Amino acid sequence: MDVNLFSPLQIRSLALKNRLVMSPMQQYRSTDGLAGPWHLVHLGSRAVGGMGLVITEATAVAPEGRNTLFDTGLWNEAQVAAWKPIVEFVQAQGAKIAVQLWHAGGKGSHAHPAAGFHYLPPADGGWVTKSASAVSLDRQHTAQQLTAAEIASLVSEFAASARRAVQAGFDAIELHAGHGYLFHQFYSALVNQRQDDYGGSFENRVRLLLETVDAIRAVIPTEMPLLVRLSSVDFSEEEDAWSLADSVHLVTLLQQHGVDVVTASAGGFSAPDKTKVVPLYQVPYAEQIKAATGVLTGAVGLITTPEQANTIISSGQADLVMLARELLRDPYFPLHAAATLHLSVPAPEPYLRAFPPAGRS
């Protein structure tokens, strides 16, 4: 059977109506980690627009896990209550919703982007950041190295937030393990200089991520999908840089530990060569990881047209297309894409006058 952008996809018990996914995008509109009206409209409008899966912005598992004071969280019951009506609204539109759980690690404690996104010291309302090793990730401050006891606490915090995600009604969970944040700080040897069980060898550097996956799998329903977003490569020529071969090795392990989907992004500690940042430039990572492991993959990176998105799916390069900035420009991308691709996809009843079914005008 031919597969296209609007073909359904089953992931465990989760039935997606199409292959379009809203990527996590920070909004910096939260107080005390609480989602609010902005998040309801931001996420809900994309569900109205026809997305199959909506993923929240990166949502911290602890106050110290945030990048700024304005990031959402899932470390207490008030935050569960704040997420529930948003989750219910998205689901009522026929979309599914996942929460992306994260910890910024040594990249945390920054001012709001509108205020310059500079490091915020404890005296100014920030906090002491912790990472795999005592390194500077923003050229403004040096993070402290996490102790073994603190690492164990982090795993517990992720598991507790996963339980809260289930309470809030989320359909799936994604772990943010890329873009230079905590898990990436451990698995990339560019940052991880530890000499204990969490540093040195490949097996040691991926240990924290695998332990966290196991801890989450132990507390969420068996039928609930678990996704992981990785940085497939480090965008670095250094000998110790994380490589695509490393990602393939890690994804093989993640599959064995119960991960269902891998979003293949890249970078986090350094920027790519600007001459190589072109439409679809990261799609080959998803394609090669899928080919090597058989795992379901999500493709990202300057995907802006219906034709591009449809080709990624129909050619088998990836199983899902993750859209970010294009959805900021066009919340109704799926409805416009269906018209462009001459596919009959129903719009919400109140919007039918603008998106009539095929054959009607």
What's the average pLDDT? 96
Class based on secondary structure composition and strand pairing: alpha/beta
Tell me the number of helical segments per DSSP (H or I, 4 or more residues long): 11
Note the beta-strand portion.
Answer: 5-15%
Low-pLDDT ranges: none
Proportion of helical residues: 25-40%
Helix-strand sequence: EEEHEHEEEHEHHHEHEHEHEHH
In total, the number of domains comes to 1
The CATH homologous superfamily: Aldolase class I
- CATH fold name: TIM Barrel
- Largest β-sheet summary: 8 strands, parallel, barrel
Distance between the termini: 30 Å
**CATH class group:** Alpha Beta
Taking Cα atoms only, what radius of gyration do you get, to the nearest Å?
Answer: 20 Å
Broad shape:
globular
Spatial ordering of strands, largest sheet = 3-4-5-8-9-10-11-12
The count of strands amounts to 12
Architecture per CATH nomenclature, i.e. the level-2 architecture: Alpha-Beta Barrel
Layout of SSEs?
Elements: E1 9-11, E2 14-16, E3 20-22, H1 37-48, E4 53-60, H2 77-92, E5 96-102, E6 130-131, E7 144-145, H3 148-168, E8 172-177, H4 182-187, H5 202-205, H6 207-217, E9 226-231, H7 244-256, E10 261-265, H8 283-293, E11 296-299, H9 306-314, E12 320-323, H10 325-329, H11 333-340
Parallel strand pairs: 3-4, 3-12, 4-5, 5-8, 6-7, 8-9, 9-10, 10-11, 11-12
Antiparallel strand pairs: 1-2
Helix pairs in contact: 1-2, 2-3, 3-6, 7-8
Describe the structure concisely for a colleague.
With 361 residues, this protein is α/β, with parallel strands linked by helices.
